[in-house]
Amino acid sequence: MKILQLVYLAYNKPDEAFIQSLFRYILHREADPGSLHAHMGLLAAGMTRIEMLSGLIQGVEARAIYYGPPVLHEMPTIANKLRHLLTLPPAHIVHHYYVELLTRMPDPGGFQGHLQRLQHGYDPVALAADFMASEEFRQLVHAAPDTLGRRFIQHALQF
Length: 159
Fold this sequence. Notes:
Elements: H1 3-11, H2 15-27, H3 33-44, H4 49-57, H5 60-67, H6 78-85, H7 90-102, H8 108-119, H9 124-132, H10 135-142, H11 145-157
Helix pairs in contact: 1-2, 1-10, 2-3, 4-9, 5-6, 7-8, 7-9
């Protein structure tokens, strides 16, 4: 399952279920009552779901999962996907971000730009958040299920 699919599954739920899904997919735990209340308040105050997603994937707790000791059972979660991708060389990270987050092959200009950023020390987790903040990612997350399904099928047929 692609990262986009996991985000899509969470994104289209009511607020409380969305937050719980993000905690499971990114932090590998349930949101405790205080965290749930705080995150519900952030959404009520106008924080977008993409901003919340970005904050969680770039947080200290999530980074401890990405860069921490190996996990015995690798479930298909956002954190486990990023854990694997972050072990790859920069060119592979960029390529897989396009595939995992935008469900398409990279365009040459975009690929080179993102690769140069990583080669100059840009944080690869922040780059994942940048992909998630893109208009293209937002459109995919908001796409009707049949549209998103077609995109996955088209991507699979490219290989």
